[in-house]
Amino acid sequence: MSPRVIAGRYAQALFELSLRQKNTEQIAAEIHALLTLYKESRLLRNILESPIYTGPRKASWLRPLLEERLSPLLWNFILLLIRRGREYLLNETCEAFIAIYDAHKKRIRAYLRSAQPLPEAIKTSLADKLRTALGASEVLLTEKVEPSLIGGFILEVGTQVADLSVRGQLREIQKNLLSN
Amino acid sequence: MTSITELRPDEVTKILEQQLAGTLTSKELEDTGIVLQVGDGIARIYGLTEVQSGELIEFEGGARGIVLNLEEDNVGAVVMGRTESIHEGDRVKRLYRVASIQVSEKMLGRVINPLGEPLDGKGPIEGPFYESPYERKAPGVIYRRPVNQPLQTGIKAIDAMIPIGRGQRELIIGDRSTGKTAVAIDTIINQRENYERGEPVICIYVACGQKASTIAQIVSTLEKYGAMPYTIVVSASAADPAPLIFLAPYAGAAIGEYFRDTGRHALIVYDDLSKQAAAYREVSLLLRRPPGREAYPGDIFYLHSRLLERAAKIIDDDTVAARMNNLPESFRPVVKGGGSLTALPIIETQAGDVAAYIPTNVISITDGQIYLEPNLFNAGVRPAINVGISVSRVGGAAQIKPMKRVAGRLKLELAQYRELEAFAKFGSDLDPATMRQIERGRRLVELLKQPQYQTMKVEHQVAVIFAGTRGLLDKLPVDKVRLFEQQYIQFLEAGHRPLLDKIRAGQLDEAMEAELERAAKQVLAGFGITA
Predict the structure, then answer these.
(1) Chain B contact for A166 (CB, 8 A cutoff)
(2) Helix, strand or coil for residue B477?
(3) Rounded to 5 degrees, what are φ and ψ at A70?
(4) Spatial distance between the Cα atoms of A13 and A7, rounded to a whole number of angstroms
């Protein structure tokens, strides 16, 4: 089975459990922190992803670091991952959890690339439009400035893309001219 | 063509403005994907969550692909054309339509690739274009009618004993270099007569995984014998990627369907389907579909059956034909009944093994097979058709009456001859009746020999076979049979043209037979034979 699918199953289980315990909000916040930690600490990644160390050793290393700082549900969940030999999927599982949580909250993450930094007003109106168009309750906009776009912007929501950049339009013009 | 000096600047602006009008409008969110992996003509794509199987997709560099696999977390697609311009991480767009080819009447006389692009350097193909999908469901039962018109191949042995009707699927099977392609090419060349009469049978030759030099040779042969004006060559040579090779027969069928559904007659040659099966196996294995017998995928039978089902004779009624299932939108204004698509698939066997996987599959799909044998070929019997195991299951209904009448005995006599042939080695120890049978058989075999590219009109075939089966040649030395045939035809053409015309029109009675017999005897007298 593909890692994405496995991670999805674990994340779904964690999410449902947190719903029942009514602490989804907290778990989500902890998972965000965990993801940042995971991305920034190479040592942590190495320990979790290495097949050389046994499960119990990994658990004993993580215990002083995480046990106190995480809610019991999440800590037990990490222990479960280690016991089942899926700790190398921690990153994917966390991302899958966030996706499930976002879907539950009807929250949409959009990715905005623009040639120049966009004014706040445009961004909020863009977010508003997206929210009504996609029926979401909240739109989280991540933005990135990419001068290579020349002008305009590219908006990505998951695999959906709207290319309104000058670069994209030039490419299309080139294609149209070549095909005729 | 207008020269560049005649072009005014304001015109340029206007034309460009027109072309760009569609580009700069507002956009909606598009369903896209990201290339995860690319290689061997296959791309795996993440995303494209809404894409349908068989849909066309476009990569960032402009290359196109067809979606074949929809998996849990990725999409498998074959890339048409080169994969060099595609990189990992590239965006992929949906084109919201199934893969199809743009068919045009101007394709006649051209050599194209399976995407419909010209390969012969004669400039772009002109429209109007009709969009015809590569994958289309074959016409249903109520839109068809049984085969009733002959498709003359111009080859005596085939037209007499294994007749092919329009709308039939007749397999040409045999080892390498036994003359499979020659049979098909002769059939195409023989359609020139129809073309000149203004009732063309449009021929489509699909070269599938062949050497580019072989394809070039075939094209020049067709040109030499004046067959190109009514022929389209779809070429996917051995140098083309596997997806293009496996797509080529579908491209040919899509073109043939346009002519079939507009009330015309078309003939399509798939040369050859064993290479297409191998190309499909390659694609399937790369897409990680499970291999089955001989490592072919499970749907290899369906690959060929759905292709060959598209060969059909369409009902004459225009109103019924207009309601045909899965008719492409662009065909609607031009659809007509009464058309046909005849298919001549070719299969290459290994060392005469017709019981291999692909040969048995295609034998069971088609309406008969023409079996070519290396032994006969080497013994100088050309075309090397083994008439014992070659059959045509539906073509008999389409044979013209005179041919049916004279050829009925031919098959029987040849069968008896084959049985007795083994004894022929004992020579004089045989009784006279057996000897007579053997001598007759030898002459008939000689009579059915025919050089390549020398197709024969049906009335000539009838006259010649009549002379053979009537036993008029029994006293003629075997090595004189070919010479007799020539002189006999010349003699008939010179003095008995009305008789030939009547035969062509489908008549043959006893008086006419007597006239044929008299003519034959007159020619035989020239060889010193009187009886």
Answers:
(1) no
(2) coil
(3) -105, 155
(4) 10
Which one of A2, A160, A169 has the shortest CB-CB distance to B32? A160
User: Do residue B29 and residue A5 have CB atoms under 8 angstroms apart?
Assistant: no
* CATH class of the domain at A3-103: mainly alpha
Which two structure tokens, joined as six digits, stand for B467? 């002379």
Q: Are B43 and B241 in contact (CB under 8 A)?
A: no
> What totals of helices (H) and strands (E) does chain A contain, helices first?
8, 4
Sequence spans of domains, chain B = 32-98, 107-398, 401-525
pLDDT for B531 equals: 65
Quickly name the fold that domain B401-525 has: Lysin (1.20.150)
Strand partners, B103: B130
User: pLDDT for A27-45, tens place per residue?
Assistant: 999 999 999 988 898 888 8
Chain A residues with CB-CB distance to B28 below 8 A: 162
Chain A residues touching B73 at Cβ < 8 A:
2, 4-5
Residue B267 C-alpha, separation from nearest chain A C-alpha, in angstroms:
32
Tokens 């109103």 locate to B319
Residue A47: predicted pLDDT: 86
CA distance linking residue A61 with residue A42, whole number of Å: 15
At residue B226, does pLDDT exceed 50? yes
Mutate to test the interface with B, among A161, A175, A176 (most CBs of B within 10 A): A161
Q: A22: distance to nearest CA of chain B, Å?
A: 31
Phi/psi for B288 (5° steps) reads 60, 35
Q: Do A177 and B72 touch (CB under 8 A)?
A: no
Reported as a pLDDT band with limits 50, 70 and 90, residue B20 is low
The residues near B316 (Cβ < 8 Å, ≥ 6 apart) are B145, B337, B338
Average pLDDT, chain A: 89
The full 3-state SS of B419-469, as one line of letters, equals HHHHHHHHHHHCCHHHHHHHHHHHHHHHHHCCCCCCCCCHHHHHHHHHHHH
pLDDT of residue B304: 97
What are B116's two structure tokens?
């419909």
- Is the pLDDT assigned to residue B1 strictly greater than 50? no
B73:A4 CB<8 A: yes
Q: What is the pLDDT of residue B19?
A: 62
- 3.50.50.60, 2.40.30.20, 3.90.1150.10, 1.10.1740.10: CATH of B32-98: 2.40.30.20
The alpha carbon of residue B20 is apart from the nearest alpha carbon of chain A, in Å, by 7
Give the chain B residue nearest A3 (alpha carbons).
B73
Phi, psi of B38 (to 5 degrees): -145, 140
Residue B31, helix vs strand vs coil:
strand
Q: What is the DSSP letter of B120?
A: S
Which positions in chain B touch A177 (Cβ < 8 Å)? 16, 19
**B428 pLDDT tier (thresholds 50, 70, 90):** low
Structure confidence at residue B133 as a pLDDT band (50, 70, 90): very high
Provide the token pair at B364.
């069971």
- Does residue B513 carry a pLDDT above 80? yes
B70/A176: higher pLDDT: B70
pLDDT at A65: 86
In Å, how far is B327's CA from the nearest CA of chain A?
27
Active site residues of B: 393
**Prediction pTM value:** 0.86
Structure confidence by residue, pLDDT tens digits, B408-417: 889 889 988 9
Q: Do B20 and A160 count as a contact with CB atoms less than 8 A apart?
A: no
Architecture of the CATH domain B107-398: 3-Layer(aba) Sandwich (3.40)
Which of A151-155, B303-307, B424-428 is predicted with the least confidence, judged by mean pLDDT?
B424-428
